[in-house]
Target: Mobilization relaxase component
Amino acid sequence: MIPSVNPSGADTRGLLYYLYDTGKHEDHIDPHLVASFDDMSPDPGRDPNATLTDLQRLLDQPMMALAEHARPAKHVWHTSVRADPGDRLLTDEEWASIARRIVASTGIDPGDGQPGCRWVAVRHADDHIHIVATLVTEDGHRPDDFRSGARAQAEARLIEKELGLHQVAPGDGTAAKRPTSAERHKAERQGRARTAREELREAVRRAVSGARSDEEFFDRLSAAGLLIRTRAAPSGDLLGYKVALPNDLNKDGEPVFYPGARLAPDLSLPRIRERWSTGSPASPQEAATHTGPGTPAAARREAASAVWQTLLVFEHREDPVAAAHIAAAGEILDALAVTSAAHTRRELRDAATAFERASRSHVRAVRGRDRTLRQSARDLVHGGTALGRGEDGATTAMAIDMLFFLITAAAHWHARKGHAQQAEAATRAAQHLRTAYQAAAAQPLGVLHARGRRLNRPMLRRQTAQLREALPELAEQILAEPGWYALAATLADTEAAGHEPGDLLTAVAEHRELTTADSVSDVLVWRLRRTADLPAYASHLPETTTPGSRGTPHRPTSERAASTKRRTRGERSLNAR
Model:
């Protein structure tokens, strides 16, 4: 149950008109009062003799009794209280009780003989009510409504438990500001699926992804079509910024600008600049592994490697460094959503939107150690849009597979820290990643599966024996999975590339848990292909043959094999630490 408090209105009748209007809103059905401050307020929805003006005058009467100079300019307190889509249908009586508890807990009408404000609760849809109050008490004073939004949320958590409703994770004050009811109504009138605030937050988040300077950040905002205003000190130093959608105008026809900090706490200019702080210089290993932006497939492969390296050390780092890695993982999600093919873009975008909440907590991120992840996000952006097939599609599946485990690890980290909303958000993001992975992986794994089915029997027997020796506890489960043949083909490819398949299989299985995987064989395919430096999309590889059979197996250069061995040893060392 979500209360959304908006304590800054100035037009009581205008708000009542919206609540009782059934002409423009399909969900405004049978608007009527379920409760009010005196339970005798006129109801324009059910009483043909009552008017909106009658109700407005009754609510505003304590304010109008004040001298004109003493009347508050913004006197309308408004909240909607919405049930979860999975909750049962509540009765008018239950909604009336909920309304009374909300106005009491927020100080609007505290009861127990204390002077309260005049208020009404209107129900015009099955799943929610609106509460409207005038912010002047019966004795002419301002009510004690300080932090009324937080107080309403706390009361809603108690109501959920008592009524057996879906229990929302408690907040911690680090969430992005929700759209106001006015913003939502405006979006509805304009036929937009999301409010301007939500669209701007996503656009700014994407512009930040992997950016390394003010100039790059503002260039990206401009390229996204946003209007930008900056604020500078007398010295000329840039202090802040505002953004607006070109088609989001106020009543005077002017663009509505939002400061970055009003979009999300970590989107203020000072907080954004923390991301591209240089910190310590790049290590020789980082400099050696980074080759700069290239093709979409190369950028995805580098991102998969960066996520994998982060997984090996993530849970062993101090909390501020772990928080930085979580935030940087969100940047990779944003970059991947922007640059992926249409059949995965929607789920990746939803994953990035969900994970945005998980990227902030009261653990302040310390930047610098997250450089590799942020560079990978930048390379994804500069690498351009990937195709949904071939090496592009296969490396997309590889990157999503790695990201799933990192996002799941972030959910576990937040849960251990007691960050309920962040843990729930990361879990939702992981669910979207599962769906995106299935779309991305179907074609490349299908190709590998077909190759595995064509392996001759001696080769399959040898792959089966290697699997049972390397992973005795998981072998029978893997052999029963549909993905086994794709794994068998990958094992054959690793052998043809000059590796010992059993040793490599043991190494990649030990590096990270496999219990959260839908298909263990799928996970092992991508880990093997990444670690052995094999093409992610394998249809063009020659068929692997057994020793003594016709054909010459593909062999890499000694330099490539040595590089792969060094990488494996390095990952083992990181894992040990």
About this structure: The chain has four domains: 2-163, 190-264, 277-440, 455-577. Confidence is low (pLDDT under 50) at residues 279-291, 544-563, 568-577. The first strand starts at residue 2 and ends at 9. Residues 455-577 form one domain.
